[in-house]
Amino acid sequence: MGAAVEVRGLRKVFNGVVAVDNVSFEVSEGEIFGLIGPNGAGKTTTLRIIAGMVKPDLGEVRIMGSNPFREGMRVKELLGYLPEEADVYSRLTGLEHLRFYASLYGGRVDETVRYGAEISGLGGDLNKRAGEYSKGMKRRLLLSLVLMRRPRVALLDEPTSGLDVYSSLRVRDLIKRYARENKTAVILSSHNMLEVEYVCDRVAFISRGRIVAAGSPDELKEKYNAGNLEEVFVKATGG
Amino acid sequence: MNFNTVRIIVWKELLDLWRDKKTLAVAVLLPVVSMPLIGLAVLLLSTQQPVQVAIVDEDNTSYTNRILGITVSSSWLVGNLTEALTRSGCRVDKYDKSPGNMTSYDLVVVIQKSFSENATSLVNQASVEIIRKANVQPAVNAESTIISVLSQFSSNISRVKVESLAGLAGLKPGSFNVNSILQPVVVGPLVVIAPSGAPATPIEQIRPYIAKILILGFIFVVSPASMYVVDSIVGERERKTIELLLATPASVAEIISGKLMVASVLGLVSSLSDVASLMIYMYLITLSLGGYFWLVLDLKLILLHAVTAFFTILTTIAIATPFITRTQGIRSAGNIATLVNMIGMTLFFTGFMVDYPKLEPSVLYPLMLIPYTHSILVIQDYVYGMTLNSLIHLSVLIVASLILLYIGVRGISPEKILLAR
Question: What stretches of B88-136 show up as alpha helix (H) in DSSP?
Fold first, then answer.
């Protein structure tokens, strides 16, 4: 399988603080890739650069062979990006959210909305204003906004952040099922090692802006002689 | 720019705005309430600051001039002054002589000794001293009342004196007119003409006044629109909804343009509300003038005002947007919007006081560099009957607002919006 996402030597500095330093990795079609690290490690900045929202000082990104800063419109059509802590418009219903975002992308809007409604699993609640939703319902709606178009690449920044156990499980299952069915390359950032081990095919540990280890969860556990990914992270970062 | 994308953004913003009843209510009520409220507040507060007046009658006599056969009493003047001042809301204390410390009074009237004798004299003049505190506006109003009473008092004595002298001179009643002696020259009929040169009707005379109120009304329609832009850009960032939107194929320019258009629509709602309140105002004026409301109602002026308001708002928010998008929070963005609004408010207030088409070119032409000057001239030129000039200024305003909009949204990138400092 070819690389859906290619990231080469990314570097970004904000006011003298290095946020991302020499980050490189590749993600194949249908693969779920986890970007793991503590808060402030550089996960969100890396995803924002891949999404074409923040320009890197150095390095290059390719999404299905296209550069997000030179071929922005093409990349936006290929890409689905769920930002960390993204929220909904409280006065719009779930269905209006689906229609609004589907219309922005064009194509078969009704079909896209139907699929979005299906993967959200919100049923009749889609007719309620999103301001009335629980945190888990909001996250499922947001995730369906990103995935309903069946993007070739999905960037999910902390998709289960702040959710309870049941909501987290639903979201994880949705991501896993979706990636398999649609052959979508998923880059998922998290600081929840258990979640990543359950969902991801391969992971990269990021600390202080640098990738300190990368591989499949089993490979990493074997390499670092660790029982779980938390131990791998501690050993890889020298903690 | 893809106009279909802008249309989708506008649809979402309008839906959101329609359900935001509080914002809509403020946009509609602010212009309706503000103008009458200003008038009412000034009226109410001015009556709540009574002026302390002392009348010192140092003369306290009554005197009869035997030659003329006329009598004047200082107590008559005291009575007239007391009645007039009390009617205008002043608190009046009366003294026969100076009570010493007068600092508690805002205004002191001293009827000097020999007032009655001098007032009836053919040689001397009677005088009344007025001592007024500086910087007390109601005291200035009280002073006007006193001067008016004194003028009437003086006029009455003059009239009696002239009639008495005429009798002494042997003139028969009816052979002379007191007014022709007291006021040999008066202002003749005052003719007010319309821009066409024909005599202006009372309705035409109040049209410039209506136009000035319309210009003042711009102040109240620009503010809600600016605050909406602040909320829809910076607020959306704070509510964490903007990043997902920026990731869609909609460009920053399309997103911002859509938001600015809806903000202008909100301003237009304020403007229409402003016009509605003005129509009620005009209706009341026509009732008092005995005219017909539909004669005062100038639909072209109302339409011109609505279009001008829309582009005035677009200009304001287009100027403020590049700064708003680069600020970190709603508070600082709000401050920037207020700063831009202040420039507009200053000019609109001068438009209420000054006839811009009458300004010297050396003053007017530099002012035309500010788009708001054209907003004022659109309305004032129309009322002066210069319809072509009015349309030219409207065209300049439209072009300026679109250029500012283009410049305003051009330099904004997702990174600047997301990572504003």
Answer: 115-120
B79 lies in the same domain as B34? no
pLDDT, averaged across chain A: 89
Cβ-based contacts of B22 with chain A (< 8 Å) = none
Burial class (CB in 10 A: 0-12, 13-18, 19+), B154: middle
Domain co-membership, B102 together with B120:
yes
The C-alpha of B327 sits at a distance from chain A's nearest C-alpha, in angstroms, of: 16
Strand order in the sheet with B107-111: B91-95, B52-57, B107-111, B128-132
Mutate to test the interface with B, among A14, A53, A66 (most CBs of B within 10 A): A53
A13: confidence class by pLDDT, cuts 50, 70, 90? very high
Structure tokens at B378: 């659109």
**Residue at B194 is within a domain:** no
Q: Who among B8, B249, B419 is closest to A77 (CB)?
A: B249
Does the distance separating the beta carbons of A76 and B246 come in below 8 Å? Answer: no
B107-122 confidence digits (pLDDT tens): 999 999 999 999 999 9
- Co-location of B138 and B275 in the same domain: no
Q: What are phi and psi of B357, to 5 degrees?
A: -65, -15
Number of domains present in the structure of chain B: 2
Q: What is the topology classification, in CATH, of domain A3-212?
A: Rossmann fold (3.40.50)
User: Residue B119: inside a domain, yes or no?
Assistant: yes
Beta strands in A76-144 (DSSP E): 79-82
**Which residue on chain A is closest to B241 by alpha carbon?**
A87
Domain ranges of chain A: 3-212
Taking each helix axis from N to C end, the angle separating B387-410 and B371-383, rounded to the nearest 10 degrees, works out to 160
Check: CB of residue B109 under 8 Å from CB of residue B53.
yes
Q: Which of A66, A89, A135 to mutate to test the interface with B (most CBs of B within 10 A)?
A: A89
- Contact B421/B260 with Cβ under 8 angstroms? no
Distance of CA A46 to the CA centre of its chain: 11
Q: Are residues B16 and B67 in the same domain?
A: no
pTM: 0.72
What stretches of A29-178 adopt beta strand conformation (E)? Answer: 32-36, 58-63, 79-82, 153-157
Residue B305 within any structural domain of the chain = yes
Q: How many Cβ atoms are within 10 Å of B179's Cβ, its own excluded?
A: 11
- Sort strands A202-207 and B52-57 into parallel, antiparallel or unpaired: unpaired
Helix axis angle, B299-324 to B330-353, nearest 10°:
150
State the residue range of the domain holding B244.
3-40+201-418
Considering the domain architecture, whether residues B63 and B30 belong to the same structural domain is answered as no
Comparing B15-19, B107-111, B150-154, the range with the smallest average pLDDT is B15-19
- Together in a domain, B301 and B385: yes
- End residue of a domain, out of B133, B153, B173: B173
**Does residue A112 sit in helix, strand or coil?**
helix
* CATH number for the domain harbouring residue B63: 3.40.50
